[in-house]
Here is the input.
Amino acid sequence: MPRQFADLRTLVAQDSPQDRLLDGLHWREVGPYRGGRVCAVTGIPGDPDTFWMGSCGGGVWRTDDAGRTWRNVSDRFFGGSIGGIDVCASDPNVVWVGTGEKTVRGNVSHGDGVWRSTDAGRTWQHVGLADTRQIGRVRAHPRDPDCAYVAAIGHLYGPNEERGVFRTRDGGTTWQRVLFVDADAGAVDLVLDPTNPRIVYATTWRVRRTPWSLESGGPGSGLWKSSDGGDTWVELTRNEGLPKGTIGIGGIAVSASNPDNLYALIEAEDGGLFRSRDAGKTWTKVDDDRERRQRAWYYTRVVADPKDEDGVWVLNVRLWHSKDGGKSFTSVATPHGDNHDLWIDPLEPMRMIESNDGGANVSLDGGTSWSPQDNQPTAQMYRVSLDDDFPYRLLGGQQDNSALRIRSRNVDGSSIGERDFEPTAGGESGHVVARPGEPELVFGGSYGGHLEMRNHRTRESRRINPWPDSVMGYGARDARWRFQWNFPLFFSPHGRDRLYAAAQALFASDDLGASWRVISPDLTRNDRDKQGPSGGPITKDNTGVEYYCTIFAACESPVQRGVLWCGSDDGRIHVTKDGGTNWSDVTPPDLPEFARVNCIDAHPREAGACVVAATRYQLDDFRPLLLLTSDFGTHWESITGTGIPADHFTRAVRFDPERDGLLYAGTERGPYVSFDDGATWRSLRIDLPIVPITDLAVRGDELIAATQGRGYWILNGLSVLRRLDAAATRR
Here is the structure.
């Protein structure tokens, strides 16, 4: 059994009804009920109501009423990000799912291979390829329910062998790798000829992320064809009419009405949309407009109309449709931008399902109108903070949506609905905090170092950026201040006017952002080699996600004014005891090089104590990393302990404010609790979906979790945990 799958089985067993220890505790969903990123959708030919979507972080969902309502069908079995999904046309009970998303942005999540259902999603079986990590496509054979193909991107952060195109002919019991380029280039797109499934087309892609860079393209990227079901392949990359230089990501489509008619969308300096009328032998460039090939690594999907060989759709920031073979395009409005996948019913092309950064939407009229996205609780939340209103609100930024604040419960006692949340200060990526004692005054960050103050009572809004320049499009070394995509923002617990923000140094304001002063030196490694423009070798992509050598987590002790902790994304921890006049480098000697300090939490009763959650997952190291100090960082203790699986990397950790020794940790696969200062951990998932935890907070008797794909959740009843004896929990 693959390690990842074994760990998942252990986790599920811990959370089973037989575990009486946590009986009676339940997570409740807060929301918001608005969709998050979806990069995989499909439907059933001839079925007007049934569609499927694979969300990024939120698992697999099904609608039986053409998108009016959705229900999750994977929660009891698996979760996380979905990269590919397909249904067998001859037996719609058979559904294939590939995990680990293709949209490899900064908060991308990996998967654990392939899952299969033979009863239309009622139950699922893990069927292998656990080390593929990221899957770009899954294609079911239209007539053989036991045959399927997988385009595996592979490890995003390092080389590995389990990548390329895989085929199974026995329902996933065994897999054969039928196309492999090398350990650095995987397969990203895949299509079967609708008239002859023996003919298979695939694109391969060399892609690599690090914490400071994203590279798309290079050796191994290309276009391939098999005429014998995948047994042998012919490379088409350099065929007549295709780009001659460096190749990046590619998308491929076949017209069902004429299988000799192909479309390929290719990232290259002279790239664009190419058309072949002879099954790939020769090609003609039909479009090179940047609107259809910008940020190629994030999009690059092309879909052929099943009835009209001159009909083609291209997905990018907007959804584009051509009726003349790509010579001209019109933009088709969708409920949300950043479009990633499109499935068209081959029997009735007016029926389609499309996905984007706001969810999935169904159209029954060829894209003129779409089903809603406010019925999908799949929001990706970066962080969470709490105000002191009643009922208190949760505040944070939602990926590719607004920052928001949402009530922890409905004041009337009914369910939390649209009336209980609203946009607030900041943007999609930043920390959002309310002024202590004045919850209507909210401060929010966004990429580029932008900060906003919003007064919800007076409707006043103003910019309070610590530095006026916007450096979008520049590399980090060209910026005066390196504000990360998700830079820290927090109020002092000792005064309602002191506000902090962080770049590579810590900023402080005592007038609510009207003016700022720098109170620290550069608290990072300041490695200039890791501050260059991100992207390449074809196109650059500088949005702040890859800004490196920055402060990534910071806090002030609630016990002693002026004790400030800062942790950087390149593995440095500093502390000051005098409000920033003097700083000490207290980096733990055992903290692995370039570990991102994702969370620092100061002890609620001890001035010299703090706990740290760090991660190196963007260096292909998925170990959990938790550390504790009780003497201002002079000595550190690893508190990863036992109980957290070896690949459940850690993003968050919090002290319980009332009981010593009680800690909460958020990992890529769910929350954990320790009753003995991290010596041992046990799952606290209970009935929470299997979803990445990005942040945690504690308020009274409640533990609040921010998730990457299922919005906000609250666990009630922490008083139960506070009464448990540590020895009893180990038993």
Observations:
- Residues 1-18 have pLDDT under 50 and may be disordered.
